[in-house]
Amino acid sequence: MDSFASLASFTCRDILVMILRKLGARDLSRASCVCKLWRDMASDDAIVSPAFMEPWKLKEIVGKPVSGSFWRENGIWRFAISHKIVRGDSVTSLAKKYSFQVMDVKRLNSMMSDHDIYSKERLLIPIINPNSLINGTCYIELDTYAKGEVEACKLKMELRNTTGSNGNPSCAHRIFSRPQGIFALQSTQMTMLEHLTSLCCGQLPQLWLPFLYSLMIPRASCVRILQICKAVPRPERLVACNSGPVTEGIGFSPILDLPFRITCYACLEFEKSFTISKIANNADAPSMREKMRQNTSTAMPQF
Amino acid sequence: MSSSTDSPTLTTETTQLSPQPDTETAKPTKKITLKSSDNQIFEVEESVAMEFATVKSFFEDSPSTDTVPLPNVTAKPLSQVIEFCKEQIKFKANPDEAQKKKYNAEFVTEKSDKDLVDMIPVANYLEIKDLLDVLNQAVADRIENKSVEYVRSFFGIDNDFTAEEEAALRREHAWAYEGVDED
Fold first, then answer.
1. Count of Cβ atoms closer than 10 Å to residue A46 Cβ
2. Is A30 close to B176, i.e. CB distance below 8 A?
3. What is the ipTM of this complex?
4. Which CATH code, of 3.40.50.2000, 3.10.350.10, 3.10.100.10, 3.40.50.720, is assigned to A76-166?
5. What's the CATH code, domain B3-143?
6. How confident is the model over A96-108, as pLDDT tens digits?
7. What pLDDT band is residue B134 in, cutting at 50, 70 and 90?
8. How many Å apart are CA B60 and CA A110, to the nearest integer?
9. Contact B173/A30, CB-based, under 8 Å?
């Protein structure tokens, strides 16, 4: 009798919806592993998107993400203001206007130097004050700027803010979707940096590019950098959450002259599409690896 | 079942506890009889029964009846729901948000997981919105940051995934498994 009562009710949609509505994004994600009905209900946009918006008190999110995984992580780093660059804008003038750290913006926009701003239509500005999201209307958009990555593994999405009545299109909030696209590493013989180099055909979240280039890690597929000793002001920005760790190690950047710790994560969705043959196709890979060896053979500590 | 023996005493107890609304309104108390699926009889005041939207509409349709059969409701959760509604009527008579909140919180914290889970379908069936909200929040709080296995046993849900399906889902949702509480 009792088991019947609870069985009937918690496989009943009306009640389930009411409970799921009270859960946060993380709990919803786990709830979708409970049973088939729960999976269908808990991954419904109507349930997931309020859970995504709740912590930031967003008023509305317009648009539909390409993949359900979009909703899973909702750190503030997922949001950005998209500033339309007009004549006379420079990194320093914008830094003053939005009070951001130049380094953060460069990383977010994959800029190697301040001059890169002139080749861009829009500049993404990280949101520092969460209050600016309160009651905001956000648009989900594909990040055209990172389109290659988006198409490959739906890396980034953009949330653009219409900023209400003045309709200023130059201001947009954007959301990155969770970086994906790691594949399993087989060898444990290679050093950490070589692991990463061998991943060079992978899809790298755009915002890590300048940073990883600076570490001499070309196009590493998906690394989770747990700690970067003093190298990056906000290492959490670089954290990509994914499946269980494949390999972990301490690295040393000869350029930055700093040690760092890296965990590589495997994501089985990409095991099939990423094969070793792809590495051979990447013209950069062999030369970079060679360069790496020369550069790091002396400075590399033991792993 | 043990509930069949202890629930009638529970109701008579709470009936004695709540004479205030009636003396205030000074109306003769009309009693309504509710009959649970396991044939327990509950006599409640009309004001309490009218808190149940389902019972209310039943009376609107057929005013002459004096016993309302509740075929989807067993005695134990029903007695708890009646207890809750009696308190709510007191709060309606003299509103005290803080006290009401306190009572609602205590009402759910002292209940076992099973009691809560059993009460939700009853509250849903009887359409008691306030209670449903309190219960759902309590359940959500209890499964917050808990493992999938815990949630399944909490609700008594059978895992209908194949091993492969579940492994794939867990990989897909791996980020949500970090830092989950011990069961």
1. 10
2. yes
3. 0.77
4. 3.10.350.10
5. 3.30.710.10
6. 777 777 777 777 7
7. very high
8. 68
9. yes
